[in-house]
Amino acid sequence: MKSLSSHLVAYRQTPKFTQDTIPDGLRNQHTTKEGSWAKICVLSGQLRYRILTDPPEDQILSVETPGIVEPQVPHQVEPLGEVEFYVEFYRDPENPSDR
Q1: Diameter of the chain by CA atoms?
Q2: Would you say residue 57 lies in a domain?
Q3: Which of 18, 24, 40, 48 has the lowest CB atom count within 10 Å?
Q4: pLDDT, tens digit, for every residue of 70-88?
């Protein structure tokens, strides 16, 4: 399981999403920008997190299991029934190109 480095700092958080309000952009293949990490935080229910690498990885996210998104790695999410979650974005404060 991937984890965030302790030197990364949070700089933005999305609103809460449910199975009915997930933007199409999150349901389809997308990436974070260069230098931007993310943590998918599930508040209730479950979310399938697909990391679209070769080979691809599937993770089931829950309250106990957040998803870690590495910079510029293609991924997508899919609700598994009722779910509520948000996404936090992180960057390295020592790297000015991450802004």
Answers
A1: 40
A2: yes
A3: 24
A4: 999 999 999 999 999 999 9
